[in-house]
Amino acid sequence: MRFIAILFIFCISLSAPIIAFGIDSPDEMLANPQQEKRAENLGSQLRCLVCQNESIEDSSADLAKDLRKVVRQRIAAGDTDQQVMQWMVDHYGNFIRLNPPFTITTALLWFMPILALSIGLMVAFVTLRKRKNTVTAALSKEEQKRLNELMKD
Predict the structure, then answer these.
(1) Which of 55, 116, 139, 153 has its CA at a distance of 20 to 30 angstroms from the CA of residue 109?
(2) How far apart are CA 84 and CA 8, in angstroms?
(3) Do 72 and 141 reside in the same domain of the chain?
(4) Distance between CA atoms of 138 and 135, rounded to whole angstroms?
(5) What is the extent of the structural domain holding 40?
(6) Using an 8 Å Cβ cutoff, are 64 and 56 in contact?
(7) In this structure, are 23 and 55 located in the same domain?
(8) What are the pLDDT digits (tens) for 27-58?
(9) Is the pLDDT of residue 138 over 50?
(10) What is the rounded distance in angstroms from the CA atom of residue 72 to the CA atom of residue 60?
């Protein structure tokens, strides 16, 4: 019992969340607080291409650090939020966005599971229907009569 308790505590400690701080050093931050806030807001909308499930602000990957610098450089140069986002999309595609716009490609991604489920249900329905007809057709007249009598009981 003691071994199970120790194993349980060990597993819990492994599953504890690890806090990742995005900005590694203060020299990465912009001097203007408004520009820094814009950079953090934009960074939270951009996907880390290494982690893929974190924003570049939350990631400590080297590529995320480089992308944070690019965002801050472009904001310091006077680009608008839309211009910075467009620059990122032009260089890395819509995948860089954590919330990509709704397009034909993303529509396919969203609706493909529904389409696959519908096709699967149709195949199952046709297969079961065909099997039912095959079983019934394979019986002779006497067997069918006997089956009907048994089904009544």
Answers:
(1) 55
(2) 47
(3) no
(4) 5
(5) 2-96
(6) yes
(7) yes
(8) 667 767 788 888 888 988 898 888 878 888 88
(9) yes
(10) 16
AA identity, residue 49: L
Backbone φ/ψ region at 93: left (φ over 0), alpha (ψ -120 to 50), beta: left
Q: Are residues 23 and 72 in the same domain?
A: yes
Burial of 120 per CB tally in 10 Å (0-12, 13-18, 19+): exposed
pLDDT in tens, 76-133: 898 898 999 999 999 988 888 888 888 888 888 888 999 999 999 999 999 888 877 6
Asked if the model's pLDDT at residue 22 lies above 60, the reply is no
73 and 117 inside one domain: no
Q: Do 37 and 76 belong to one domain?
A: yes
91 plus 108 within the same structural domain: no
